[in-house]
């Protein structure tokens, strides 16, 4: 193979086996001894490998296999497992998606596909014959004479048919060359290797993100493809011109070293082929040179036209199935300043790791996605620089609907990040680590990464902290990715983003991740700008680009580009400029409407034309052209009855469609299939990058759905619900969708069941709450029965639980009240539980008196029996809540009484969770009794709490118990033990992003090192804890950190700074304050005031530290020394007080207090 025939996407290249008259099966049997493939696994799905490796190249390998039941031989194409890169995975997945839906005898069919240990594979039909590369090699090197021209022209003419079909389906091959054309035994060509095929049919609907995917084979690559620009079918036709040139001359138009070939494609006009083969007619020269035109608009635009030209030149004419007519993607027009701004941002992140956050806003159809796609050429050039390694990740927010899920827009980012590190345990641990399990609730594929099976389950957190943990984990993944090289993230249709996704983006902006080499670009519709997006746009580190309507000149260029002709009729242009009002989507809709109505057609020369006598009037008279909505309605009206019915069914099913489901249950399969083909042909539906279906623009779906009358709509939704239920059964990810369909169908009992199931399975409480509300709404529509009343009470209670977790205590109390009222005949234990929970909602609102009243009411409802396990569980829960409330009220005696009351029960109680709460309550009670100077008994309770929590298996409770034990070590002066326990707990808290515990551990670690006199370590830890406390807006801990930093300043003889920090800490705590560790700031402040000579101020600080009811009991010797100074000052013995305070401060310095 020559240097010019080297593919830029080697991972899936199989190579060409040359040799005279070589005949073989496709994919080719591996003949070169240097190509060694790994041994095949025994099975790929239902196919058993035969042990024969058919081909290999780069990262791709093809095995022979046989179906275990039918014996049918197939070729299994896959990757080299652990050696595959993320680009290789993308390529083969892309090829599978492209081939699955294509049905043409000239395109190799995929008969099955799947995943083997996370690596995709596809089973393809075995073909007998040879590649066109082999065939031409044999023709030109073995006979010594020029092959018959008719034979060569007929080969290329036959190739035009599958190429026309491919283009009609909106795909461009991008790697068309003799090695990717397989000739069967009857010389019928079959296109193979669509690993880098891409869509170009953006004009039919909306654009699809495709950035940074530059690929192809240099000898056959069009100039625009070499430049990394967006390509369409005309890039394939350029390659077809290269193939035709090679057929009639024996070599492609440009040969030589790769760099020379590329330059010739870009700049050198090709010589007429007849200069190399004088037997060629001038008309063939003209055809080939036109196909090889440097500018796409100067080439023939359609493969069928090339076929017709070849027939005119003598190729054998044969009947071919008609291909779909299509319009080209228009050139990028307008928005030049916006494009320049984004290109500058891409350059900055690539070369200087200076990223940022850009929002692109504009009306629907204004070209937002296309603007972002225009970054492709620049990204491709940057990626071609070996000194740069930039990752590009793209995603689209799904439109609102039953399948919308939290964080779903960012799932493609997570999958792409996983692909980048899936073959490296070290890389997977660095990028994901414990964050993998946190994020796997939103993208389960993360669990397949190496090492994830060894990661512990993250501990349960309150909803606010859990949400913050998810957001933090996303940011950490982005940071870890950026550490490997600059990252460009593109997110389309931000107006449909869920709240959690918006929280991630807000955190991205606030964290200024642009400084880490990350550039994020998001687009959204200006007419659907939500308050949340408006707030995002107003953040400091976010820049916004607003796209305006296009001017007349830009509209003219768009029309010319879509029609692939330089000067469309003036009457048509005038009408479109007036009617489209500067919106490029409107332009495309008008032209497609004209194409469907026959006003726009292709003439005998293959150019689009309008009726010369009525073109302008016809375009202007398209039905109700003032709004695109009415124009779309007219397009839908032109469908036949079966087509309209299928469009309605698709609109009911939603955005992401499955072909099998779409055609499922059709009474007339043939009619349904014909209607389906019509929707594809009319560009009502299109195939997505994942080989599923969607409306070519969301406006089509919205309008198709709105046209269904209510009765028919209910029937459609019932059919959808039943079909999905039959297919997916109890799959939790479909529960909300099923609830949605049965709700719209008026099947409220079924809807309630599925909404309730979806709420229980929701990944977080924020997502569960609206599902509980949906379940309640549908349940209210059903008849009142005892079962309904019980279910109503259960749903209200669960909604109350969710609201309590979210801190919405007033609404939670209302929900528990509704539960009590919904089923007044509930069992005593159920009624008790709801009353207790209502009391808890009062307690967490700091309404302690009301909480105690509620607990008394709950105990009365519980009654005397029968004393089942459920009865005792509720009785214990009530007592523990009462203990907690009295502890908060500092009712020491009542707390002690309640603890004594439940002690006999706790000695035999088997539920570990309740026992954890009991020992935690004992520990806290003793701490308060002992004024945080821990006894051996308190230490025993703390250790017992840790042991019980470990047996219970609740990671969150275990972390809390270990933290409390560390504090008790610190309070008891066991600083080394305290530090070890705090460091271990801090590590776990950091891994699982238990933010509150992370802050507390940092605070007390600084205090422990302070007690040991380690100034540098204390300063570092105090600064870390200050930052964490500020981020959490935890004012008490902010003051704690400032108190530790005041001590650091004092050690460095910076009295002014120590005083400032200490005073700020006291201000954080307020006055009066029950915070028991005020000595942290007051003792350094006392020392500063004393050295200044302010004895009054110093004694004031000592008095506050020694307050008997609120402050920690200091070590006896220090407390006595301070008390003596206070007593002397109180009796007027100023000099004595000064001496005693100096002595006390010296003692305090030895203990880390000053």
UniProtKB/TrEMBL annotation:
- Taxonomically, the superkingdom here is Bacteria
Tell me which Pfam families the record gives: AAA_16 (PF13191), Pkinase (PF00069)
Which residue intervals define the domain Protein kinase in the entry? 48-327
Q: Does the UniProt entry include the keyword Repeat?
A: no
**UniProt feature, compositional bias: Polar residues:** 1-10, 19-32
The protein's GO terms of the molecular function aspect are: adenylate cyclase activity; ATP binding; protein kinase activity
Q: Any idea which positions bind ATP?
A: 77
SUPFAM superfamilies per UniProt: P-loop containing nucleoside triphosphate hydrolases (SSF52540), Protein kinase-like (PK-like) (SSF56112), TPR-like (SSF48452)
Q: Which GO terms describe its cellular component?
A: cytoplasm
What keyword terms does UniProt attach to this protein?
ATP-binding, Kinase, Nucleotide-binding, TPR repeat, Transferase
From the UniProt entry, list the residue stretches annotated as the region Disordered: 1-41
Q: Which PROSITE patterns match?
A: PROTEIN_KINASE_ATP, PROTEIN_KINASE_DOM, PROTEIN_KINASE_ST, TPR
TPR repeat locations: 793-826
Show the PANTHER family listed in the entry. GUANYLATE CYCLASE DOMAIN-CONTAINING PROTEIN, TESTICULAR SOLUBLE ADENYLYL CYCLASE
Indicate what this protein is called per its UniProt record: Serine/threonine-protein kinase PknK
Q: What does the record give as the organism's lineage?
A: Bacteria, Pseudomonadati, Myxococcota, Polyangia, Polyangiales
């Amino acid at each position: 193979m020559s240097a010019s025939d080297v593919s830029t996407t080697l991972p899936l290249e199989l190579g060409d086996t040359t040799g005279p008259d070589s005949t073989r099966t496709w994919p080719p049997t591996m003949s070169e001894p240097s190509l060694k493939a790994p041994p095949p696994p025994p099975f790929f799905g239902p196919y058993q490998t035969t042990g024969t490796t058919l081909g290999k190249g780069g990262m791709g390998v093809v095995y022979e296999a046989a179906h275990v039941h039918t014996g049918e031989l197939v070729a299994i194409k896959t990757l080299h497992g652990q050696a595959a890169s993320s680009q290789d995975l993308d390529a083969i997945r892309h090829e599978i998606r492209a081939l699955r839906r294509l049905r043409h005898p000239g395109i190799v069919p995929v008969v099955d596909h799947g995943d083997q240990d996370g690596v995709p594979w596809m089973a393809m039909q075995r073909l007998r014959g040879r590649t066109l590369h082999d065939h031409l090699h044999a023709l030109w090197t073995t006979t010594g004479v020029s092959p018959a021209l008719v034979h060569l022209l007929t080969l290329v003419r036959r190739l035009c048919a599958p190429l026309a079909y491919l283009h009609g389906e909106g795909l461009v091959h991008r790697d068309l060359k003799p090695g990717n054309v397989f000739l069967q035994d009857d010389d019928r060509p079959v296109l193979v290797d669509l690993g880098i095929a891409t869509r170009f049919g953006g004009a039919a609907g909306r654009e699809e993100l495709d950035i940074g995917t530059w690929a192809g084979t240099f000898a056959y690559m069009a100039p625009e493809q070499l430049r990394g620009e967006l390509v369409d079918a005309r890039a394939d036709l350029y390659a077809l011109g290269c193939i035709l040139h090679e057929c009639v001359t024996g070599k492609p138009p440009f040969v030589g070293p790769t760099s020379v070939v590329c330059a010739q494609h870009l700049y050198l006009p090709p010589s007429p082929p007849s200069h190399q083969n004088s037997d060629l007619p001038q008309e063939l020269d003209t055809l080939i040179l036109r196909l090889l035109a440097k500018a796409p608009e100067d080439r023939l635009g359609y493969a069928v036209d090339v076929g017709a030209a070849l027939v005119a030149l003598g190729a054998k004419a044969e009947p071919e199935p008609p291909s779909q007519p299509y319009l080209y993607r228009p050139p990028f027009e307008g928005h030049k300043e916006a494009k320049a701004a984004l290109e500058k941002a891409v350059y900055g992140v690539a070369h200087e790791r200076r990223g940022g956050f850009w929002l692109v806003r504009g009306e629907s159809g204004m070209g937002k996605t296309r603007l972002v796609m225009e970054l492709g050429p620049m990204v491709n050039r940057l990626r071609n620089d070996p000194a740069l390694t930039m990752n590009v990740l793209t995603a689209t927010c799904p439109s609102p609907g039953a399948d919308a899920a939290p964080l779903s827009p960012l799932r493609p980012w997570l999958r792409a990040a996983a692909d980048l590190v899936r073959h490296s345990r070290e890389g997977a641990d660095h990028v994901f680590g414990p964050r993998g399990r946190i994020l796997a609730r939103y993208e389960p594929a993360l669990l397949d990464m190496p090492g994830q099976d060894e990661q512990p389950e993250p501990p349960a957190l309150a909803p606010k902290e859990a949400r913050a943990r998810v957001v933090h984990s996303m940011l950490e993944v982005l940071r870890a990715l950026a550490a490997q090289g600059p990252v460009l993230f593109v997110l389309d249709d931000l107006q449909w983003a869920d709240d959690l996704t918006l929280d991630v983006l807000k955190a991205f902006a606030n964290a200024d991740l642009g400084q880490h080499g990350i550039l994020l670009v998001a687009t959204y519709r200006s007419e659907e700008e939500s308050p949340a997006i408006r707030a995002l746009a107003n953040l400091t580190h976010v820049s916004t680009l607003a796209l305006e309507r296009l001017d007349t000149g830009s509209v003219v260029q768009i029309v010319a580009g879509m029609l692939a002709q330089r000067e469309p009729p003036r009457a048509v242009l005038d009408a479109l400029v007036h009617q489209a009002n500067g919106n490029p989507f409107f332009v495309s809709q008008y032209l497609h409407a004209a194409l469907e109505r026959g006003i726009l057609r292709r003439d005998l020369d293959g150019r689009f034309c309008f009726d010369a006598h009525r073109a302008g009037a016809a375009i202007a008279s398209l039905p109700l052209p003032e709004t695109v909505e009415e124009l779309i309605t007219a397009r839908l009206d032109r469908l036949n009855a079966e087509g309209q019915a299928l469009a309605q069914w698709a609109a009911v099913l939603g955005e992401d469609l499955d072909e099998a489901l779409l055609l499922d249950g059709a009474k007339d399969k043939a009619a349904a299939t014909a209607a389906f083909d019509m929707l594809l042909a009319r560009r009502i539906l299109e195939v997505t990058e994942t080989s599923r279906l969607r409306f070519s623009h969301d406006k089509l779906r919205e309008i198709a759905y709105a046209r269904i009358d209510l009765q028919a709509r209910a029937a459609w939704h019932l059919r959808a619900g039943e079909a999905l239920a039959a297919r997916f059964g109890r799959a939790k990810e479909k529960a909300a969708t099923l609830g949605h369909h049965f709700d719209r169908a008026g099947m409220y009992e079924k809807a309630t069941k599925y909404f309730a199931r979806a709420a229980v399975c929701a990944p977080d409480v924020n997502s569960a709450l609206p599902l509980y509300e949906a379940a309640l709404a549908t349940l209210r529509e059903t008849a009142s029965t005892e079962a309904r009343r019980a279910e109503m009470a259960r749903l209200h209670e669960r909604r109350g639980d969710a609201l309590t977790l979210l801190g919405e205590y007033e609404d939670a109390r209302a929900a528990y009240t509704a539960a009590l009222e919904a089923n007044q005949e509930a069992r005593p234990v159920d009624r008790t539980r709801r009353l207790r929970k209502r009391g808890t909602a009062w307690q967490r609102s700091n309404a302690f008196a009301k909480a105690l009243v509620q607990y008394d009411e709950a105990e009365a409802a519980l009654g005397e029996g029968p004393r089942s396990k459920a009865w005792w569980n509720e009785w214990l829960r009530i007592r523990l809540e009462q203990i907690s409330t009295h502890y908060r009220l500092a009712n020491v005696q009542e707390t002690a009484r309640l603890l004594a009351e439940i002690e006999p029960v706790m000695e035999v109680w088997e539920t570990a969770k309740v026992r954890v709460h009991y020992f935690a309550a004992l520990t806290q009670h003793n701490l308060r009794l002992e004024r945080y100077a821990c006894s051996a008994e308190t230490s025993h309770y703390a250790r017992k709490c840790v042991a019980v929590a470990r047996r219970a298996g609740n990671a969150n409770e275990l972390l809390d118990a270990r933290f409390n034990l560390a504090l008790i070590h610190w309070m008891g002066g066991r600083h080394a033990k305290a530090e070890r326990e705090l460091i271990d707990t801090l590590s776990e808290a950091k891994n699982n992003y238990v933010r509150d515990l992370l802050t507390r551990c940092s605070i007390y670690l600084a205090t422990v090192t302070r007690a040991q006199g380690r100034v540098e370590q204390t300063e570092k830890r105090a600064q870390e804890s200050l930052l964490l406390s500020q981020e959490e807006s935890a004012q008490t801990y902010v003051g704690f950190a400032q108190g530790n930093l005041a001590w650091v300043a004092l050690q460095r003889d910076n009295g002014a700074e120590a005083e400032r920090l200490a005073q700020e800490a006291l201000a954080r705590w307020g006055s009066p304050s029950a915070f028991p560790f005020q000595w942290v700031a007051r003792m350094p402040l006392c020392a500063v005031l004393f050295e200044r000579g302010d004895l009054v101020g110093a004694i004031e600080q000592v008095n506050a530290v020694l307050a008997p009811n609120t402050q920690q009991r200091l070590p006896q010797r220090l407390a006595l020394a301070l008390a003596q100074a206070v007593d002397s000052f109180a009796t007027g013995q100023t000099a004595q007080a000064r001496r005693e305070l100096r002595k006390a401060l010296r003692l305090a310095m030895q203990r880390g207090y000053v």
